[in-house]
Every structure is written in structure tokens, then in C-alpha cells.
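Sample pair:
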Amino acid sequence: MILKVKNISNIGGVVKAPPSKSYSHRAVILASLAKGTSKLYDMLYSKDTLASIRVCEALGAQITRHDDYLEVVGTGGKLHNSSNVPIDLANSGTTLRLMTSVSALSDNEVTLTGDDSLKTRPMGLLMNALKPLGINTKSLNDNEKAPILIKPGFAGGETNIYGNVSSQFISSILISSPLSKHGVTLYVLPEFKSRPYVNMTLDIMRKFGVKSLKGYYLKHDNCDKEFQSCRIDEFKITKQDYFACDYTVEGDYSSASYLLALIAINGGKAKIKNLFRNSKQGDKVILDILQQMGAKIIRGDDYVEIGSDGNLKAIDVDLSNAPDLLITVAVLAAMADGTTNITGVAHARVKETDRIDTTCRELEKLGCKLEEYEDVNGYTICSFCLKIYRQTLNEQLSGFREREEDICPYCDYVNDSSMKYDYWNTAINDVELKA
């Protein structure tokens, strides 16, 4: 598919942000583990979240899609795999990571697999962390990647995992911990990246009735408490049940960042609803980033307003806790006046693709000047850095500003993952585009 971008000079209007994919995954999984029947409103139905629905159904949840909500009859934590073949998760890395731990709660074996891309995702760190909890897993290709066989049995106990690869490994253990035999104490070793995603997990677990305790230890008494390289985080979850509830999925700051960035670059005003001020989403830092670059941001309780004249200035930004903003911020940086330094995104290399390399190569095709390097500075080891220099009147990149342009020939792949483009293609009809 070729995505054609038409030239425009101003944007304005009111739209509703698409539902959060991260919360949609977690909502259907927790509802499936709960006692009782849950109603999930404003669910995102993408190929990724549909993969989570399929695996939950295979493990015993009864799930029915209605016009305005998803009904989930939970299992009460008593899972049984009804699939005689490996459960196909397509390209959903989130489903694979979260459900690897959950599958150990089943009373029979579960095998999780997916497409060729999913089979490249490293899973060894999670598999090793599950061993002390009595969970036996096996990579069927002996490469610590899918397909993965998970055997029944989740005793619980203590384990640890490094926090610098994927926060979803941490969320996976936390989600399944309440239903283990003895509860779980999890130590997250430094550096703890993407911490807000774990906070999102704990937040929705509370909504479904599960309580947790958390604390931290410092390697060195004289270190600042926020210095991640010296901090070990502890999460303690006792044995307890999930309980059904009616839950509304909030809007997604990551998806909204595309429209926010478009307005910031091209100028205009817009109001985006369903973005909550008190959201746990780490990607809401996009509002601070845009404000620092020169856009005007107004934060309401459940909406965001943005205004911009299109003149942006370069900044230094650490995306350690919001790696999904890398591409958006990189494009903003290319259109800003000055040199922008993006740091803290080394873990973006182990997503569905190497997002760092892909971002750099695509921006280079558009004539953007950039530098890519690894930073070794004190306790920060292999923290990726990206310098992006403004291109004066870069008409290749500013297709919205200057002329009609065909871009993104791989949008079919992106759409498979999140359906964000389809959502905005529909929502943009509610926005006035002025030629």
C-alpha cells in the first residue's frame, strides 16, 4: 500500500484519540483471568489485540464482541488449553511476552508461536526469570525464541530480571503472579527502562482487584534515589484473585502523538479528546516535548489542545521511558531549528524491527542529516544517541507543507501491528484540512 500525503497549510478541529493498545491487551487478559463477567468499553480491535483475544479464548475465557463493548466471562484463574496446535499470535510481541507467564497457569501444556517476525523476538531473559518460580519453558527451535512450549505449574517465590530489555517481561510476571501458588517477589535489576508501562500494568491490576507492594534498594548509599543504574526495584504480590469489572480503555498518547506532531510541524489548532491528565502512560511526555519545542499545549482532565505556528526549536530529549515516541520525535527533530539529541532508546532495537536503524535510514532517504552512535558515559552503557540536524525547506520531509507526496510503502506492515493509521484515516474526516 502507498500512503499519499496531500499538501495542506493548516489543520484544525476536534477528534477522539484511538484507544490505548497497551491497555486493551492488558484489559482482555485480566478480564479473562478474573472471576465473573467483565464489560470492556472502547477496546482497540487491531491484529495484535485480536491475538490476545484468541489466546485467552483458547485458555478458557468466553469472549463476545458487542457493538459498544467486549464481554469477557473470566476463568477465575483456572485455565485449560483447548487448542491441539500451537496458538498463532501472528506478529503480536506484546501477546507473546505477556502470555508466556500466564500460560503456566494452565493445567496442560501451551505452545505459543507466530509469524516469521515474531519468531525473531528474543525471549530468553523472561524464560530464565521464570525458572525460579517453578515455570518450565522450552524454545522448540532451541534459540530462546518462539515457538515456545510452556508446561503447567506456577509455584511462585522470588526471581529477578534485568529491566533494560523489555518492560513487557516485567509486566508478564506481575500479571500472572497473583494466581501462583505462593505469590511472587520480583526484583528488577538496573537499568529499569520503560517504567511507565509497568506502572500501567499495576494500575489496571488494581482496577481488577489485585494489590501489590513495591519498593527499591540502592547499590550505593550515597547515590541519588532516581539514578537508575544504582537502583534495584522490588515488587511483591501475594496470592489473590482478580475480580471482573466494567472497564473503559483510555485514549492512546502514542497514537495521538502523530496528529499532535503533524499540527506542531505544519501549524494549526486542534482538540484531542479521550486523553487523560492523570494517565499512567509514559508517552504522555510527548506533551512536554512539544511544549519545549515551541507548541502551545493545554491539558484538560480528559482532553488535550494544541496550537502551533509551525516554528519549532531543537531540544535534547531522553526517551528511556517512552521508546515508542522515537519515530515521532525524530521527525519533529528533522523539522526543528537546530540540532536535537535523542538518547535512552537502545531498547528500541529489539522491537518488531530495529526501530533505530529503520528510522535513520528512512529519514536519510528524505534528505535528513543525522548521526547515530552509542553513548558510554558513567553508568549509562550503550545508551543510543541520535543527533538530527534541521533541513532548511526540506520539501521531501514536509509533504504536508509543500506538495503531494507518496510515502510509507510499508504501511501494510505497520497497520497490521496497531491499526493506528486506519483509525486516523477515519478520525481525520472530523478535522478540517485547509489547502
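Residues 376-384, 391-398, 402-435 have pLDDT under 50 and may be disordered.
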